[in-house]
Specification:
heterotrimer; A mainly alpha; B alpha/beta; C alpha+beta; A: mainly alpha; 65% helix; globular; B: alpha/beta; five-stranded mixed β-sheet; four-stranded parallel β-sheet; 16 helices; 43% helix
Chain lengths: 200, 389, 64
């Protein structure tokens, strides 16, 4: 028997399916962490949003660490989704969009978001070997991952449907992104200016 | 007269005066150039033989002739290319042969009349190595060696970060020998007449003749010529600027014993540069002239490096305030700090040259500085400008 | 090992000075002023962090 089949066979009925709970909880957590990571990313690059009490490298490190944590939750989300037998989604659907039997469009959004995340992470691991411009351009594609994930959350599973709690998480995350963007816009242009405490 | 002869521009006249260029054994040529003691005439004064030998050691070398006379006060390269294009082209072929290059480039300022003249001269010749002419935007930094390489490689005439320097990785990432066009002209003649001939004239340590632009006039003189022989009556002289706008001021009292050599000028705290000599008459204000040039140099930055595009305008503004007022004496501390903090922090030596120029002015015109600082500027500020920008 | 900055790539983000203040300070325009000597052993780890943190990869470590 294949690994998937044996794991699926071991899963109890729907209402107590551990994989189903895991996939929902890790998926939501990954999405919340993605939101936080992007918010930090928007803030990390703006010079005016730094201070001696909260230096740029702190925001930058938080951004990186939250991204990695989000990826960890995302990995569990993906594995438990595939292994759970209630809906049929093959391993291919992890990286190839539109091959899922279950809600192909909305799962595809998740797939594409994951693909983008993979490319961004690989580019960051290879950062010293690729040009700074190429790295930045790849990194900007991560902005697309958020709306894709947002819509994926809204339209797959049931947590966001029918006025359940998921919708509030969605709205809250959208609010966080909107706030981060607003702060960035208000902070003005990003022209060089030194942190006074470091000027000698 | 070796370079600035009465010969016309055509190839026939050129060959009639100088003879055919015959390039023989490459190692023998490199030895000859070494023995000649030829130093680069573009400003740095680097031994040409050593430069060629280093590039020759690399593979697939390329040669580039620099005819972009970035200095407003210099006219020698333009004069040479315009009146004696074949001297320059001979030199380029000689350099190509010496380093084993199969590709030659010549950079000239856009809009220069020399472009058409060189183009026509190229059609008269049957060179072994093909020469490509490049038009370079007329900006001070565009003629810096990494900027020229960048222009040929990408079309953008802005300096790049070094290392690697062009002699290691230049055009097409290949070892590139960049020589000033005057240096090339001498090179072509050394290939014909030999090292002994070259050394027969001029200073024993830095031999040969050199083209010098003295107050706008181009002359050819043996190296080691006393600077005072180039100038008019010394009693009307307040100071001399040698080496162009990256050079240094020399007080009139020190001009007496100065000869046109890298050695003497370094000892005087300056540099020979590209053989530019400018006189400042008594009655003009050295600080005002310096401020005009400092402003020009600040405008001419490539806009790439923060310490330069921030620092030079700040320095220029301070010198201007010192020259013309209004002056607040607290500014002096700022100016001193900027002059200390700007050099060495750009990708090229543009900020370094500008700072050296200003520092020499503050030293040579120290009396003026004191007077201007105390609020009593000299009458010289009402004189018409002397230095071209 | 020495710390060098490519002044063309540097756009004065200042993270290097935050992470290695013992070796790098900023001029009044935000650009790094870097000690050119060999980095002492106890600062090497932070020097690596500073180079990794530079948003434009302008700060580099140079092995002599």
């Amino acid at each position: 028997m294949t690994v998937t089949a044996s794991l699926t066979a071991a899963a109890p009925t729907l209402s107590q399916a551990p994989y189903w709970y895991l996939t929902r909880s890790t998926g939501i957590t990954a999405f919340v962490l993605l939101t936080v990571s992007i918010a930090f990313g928007i803030a990390a690059t703006h010079r005016a949003l730094a201070s001696p009490a909260w230096p740029r490298f702190a925001t930058q490190n938080l951004h990186r660490n939250v991204s990695v944590l989000s990826l960890a939750f995302l990995a569990v989300h993906i594995v438990t989704t595939i292994v759970d037998g209630f809906v049929t989604i093959s391993w291919w659907a992890v990286v190839v969009p539109f091959v899922s039997d279950y809600r192909p469009l909305w799962v595809a959004f998740g797939t594409i978001a994951f693909d983008l995340t993979l490319i961004v992470i690989v580019s960051s691991l290879l950062r010293l070997r690729i040009s700074a411009t190429l790295w930045r351009r790849i990194h900007y594609t991560s902005y697309a991952a958020w709306p894709l994930t947002f819509l994926h959350f809204l339209n797959t599973g049931t947590d966001a449907a029918h006025g359940r709690f998921g919708i509030w998480i969605d709205i809250a995350c959208a609010g966080v992104i909107a706030a981060a963007l607003a702060v960035r816009v208000v902070a003005g242009d990003n022209a060089p200016r030194p942190l006074r405490s470091l000027v000698r | 007269m070796r370079l600035l002869t009465e010969t016309g521009r055509s190839l026939a006249e050129h060959v009639a005066t100088h003879g055919e260029l015959r390039l023989g054994n490459r190692p023998a040529l490199l030895d000859e150039v070494d023995r000649s003691g030829l130093l680069g005439r573009g400003g740095a004064g680097f031994p040409t033989g050593r430069k060629l030998r280093t590039v020759a050691a690399g593979s697939k070398a390329v040669v580039l002739g620099n005819g972009c006379e970035g200095e407003p006060a210099s006219g020698k390269d333009h004069r040479l290319m315009q009146s004696h294009p074949h001297l320059v082209l001979d030199g380029l072929q000689t350099a190509a042969h010496a380093v084993g290059a199969r590709e030659a480039h010549l950079a000239v300022h856009a809009g220069s009349s020399a472009l058409a003249i060189l183009g026509k001269a190229l059609t008269e010749r049957r060179d072994l190595v093909r020469t490509t002419l490049h038009e370079v935007p007329v900006r001070y930094v565009a003629s810096e060696e990494s900027a020229l390489v960048n222009l040929v490689n990408t079309g953008l005439a802005k300096p790049t970060f070094t290392p690697p320097r062009p002699f290691e990785q230049g055009i097409g990432k290949r070892p590139t020998a960049i020589n000033n066009v005057e240096t090339l002209a001498h090179l072509g003649l050394i290939a014909r007449h030999g090292a002994e001939w070259f050394r027969a004239v001029g200073d024993p340590d830095e031999p040969g003749t050199a083209l010098v632009t003295v107050n706008g006039t181009v002359v050819e003189v043996p190296t080691g010529t006393p600077v005072r022989d180039l100038l008019g009556p010394l009693d009307d002289l307040q100071a001399v600027l040698v080496g162009g706008y990256f050079g240094t001021w020399i007080a009139a009292a020190q001009v007496h014993d100065l000869t046109l050599t890298h050695r003497d000028l370094r000892a005087a705290g300056g540099a020979l540069g590209a053989g530019i000599v400018l006189s400042l008459p008594v009655g003009s204000c050295g600080l005002l002239e310096t401020s005009r040039v400092a402003t020009y140099l600040a405008d001419q930055n490539a806009g790439q490096c923060g310490p330069c595009f921030n620092g030079l305008p700040a320095i220029a503004a301070a010198v201007r305030a010192l020259a013309l007022g209004p002056w607040h004496d607290g500014e002096m501390a700022h100016l001193d700090r900027w002059l200390g903090i700007v050099p060495g922090r750009g990708a090229c030596r543009h900020p370094d040259g500008a700072v050296r120029f200003v520092l020499s002015a503050l030293s040579v015109f120290a009396n003026d500085v004191a007077r201007h600082r105390s609020g009593h500027p000299c009458t010289g500020i009402r004189q018409p400008p002397v230095l071209p920008v | 090992m020495r710390v060098r900055v490519n002044p063309i790539d540097c756009t004065a983000h200042g993270l290097c000075a935050e992470l290695l203040p013992e070796w790098i300070s900023l001029d009044e325009w935000g650009y790094p002023v870097i000690d050119e000597q060999v980095v002492p052993a106890q600062l090497v780890r932070n020097a690596r962090r500073a180079a990794a943190a530079c948003p434009t990869l302008a700060l580099r470590l140079q092995q002599d």
